[in-house]
Amino acid sequence: MKHLLATVALLAVTACAQTAGTNSFNQEAGAVADTGSFGNATMNNMLVMSGQRDFSIALARRFAAEVPTMVNFAFDSTVLDAEARRVLMEQANFIRQFPEVRFKVYGHTDLVGSNAYNRRLGLRRAQTVVAFLTSQGISRSRLEAVVSLGETQPLVVTEGREERNRRTVTEVSGFVQRHPGVLNGKYAQVIFREYVDSAQRPSTVGAELGDITDG
């Protein structure tokens, strides 16, 4: 019995070793070292180029990471203060770099007042932001829609006045053309365009005119 059990165990170990050896032999070179991430960059690029991956998601994350997406308002107001204008200037600078992309502005309010009134107020705030971005050279057709969420999505749940709830939020909403791969290999050109634009010398026309007028 002991000899029989020992023989069975030896056969099992040998079979496992042969199977492992066969699998290793039949696998592609480097398969053992590859944990599954090798080639992901190429795969991701192919998905973007073929339109299988929604590139707007990646750009939305970049926009949220690089630019303040939210501006706040005084109570029952749609007026943009100095800080709001500064933030919107940053948004406009980013948006101008990507003429292929559309953006959406969401208007919010705090919980004071009726829901119907707050939906109208949220819409007016979104419209104010859209008007400002348009004044900065952004095509109105790229600001896809203005949406009012009113008091339905407060950042701070309170029945009182809360400035953080009185806000608009700007987000990437998609591409100007319907196909998600509209950039289609041109992303390097977009990056190069940003690089060139960042090196442009500020215009001195205004200063020169000012000098002439003062003279």
Describe what this molecule looks like in 3D.
The protein is built from 7 helices and 4 strands. The chain has helices at 2-26, 40-50, 55-66, 82-96, 115-135, 187-198, 205-214; strands at residues 70-72, 101-108, 143-150, 167-175. The protein has a domain at 50-198: OmpA-like domain (60s Ribosomal Protein L30, Chain: A, 2-Layer Sandwich). The chain has a 4-stranded mixed sheet with strand order 1-4-2-3. 49% of the residues lie in helices and 13% in strands. The chain is of the alpha+beta class and 215 residues long.
Reconstruct the topology from this structure.
Elements (H helix, E strand, L loop, with lengths): L1 H25 L13 H11 L4 H12 L3 E3 L9 H15 L4 E8 L6 H21 L7 E8 L16 E9 L11 H12 L6 H10 L1
Parallel strand pairs: 2-3
Antiparallel strand pairs: 1-4, 2-4
Indicate the CATH topology of the domain at 50-198: 60s Ribosomal Protein L30, Chain: A
Helical percent range? 40-55%
Main pleated sheet: 4 strands, mixed
- What strand order characterises the main sheet? 1-4-2-3
What is the level-2 CATH architecture name of the domain at 50-198?
A: 2-Layer Sandwich
Structural class: alpha+beta
Basic shape: elongated
**How many beta-strand elements?**
4
Determine the mean pLDDT. Answer: 73
Our measurement of the CA-to-CA distance between the termini, rounded to an integer number of angstroms, reads 115 Å
Using the CA coordinates, give the radius of gyration. Answer: 29 Å
The string of secondary-structure elements, in order, is HHHEHEHEEHH
Strand content: 5-15%
So, the CATH homologous superfamily of the domain at 50-198? Answer: OmpA-like domain
Instruction: Enumerate how many helices there are, as a single number.
Output: 7
- Highest-level CATH class of the domain at 50-198: Alpha Beta
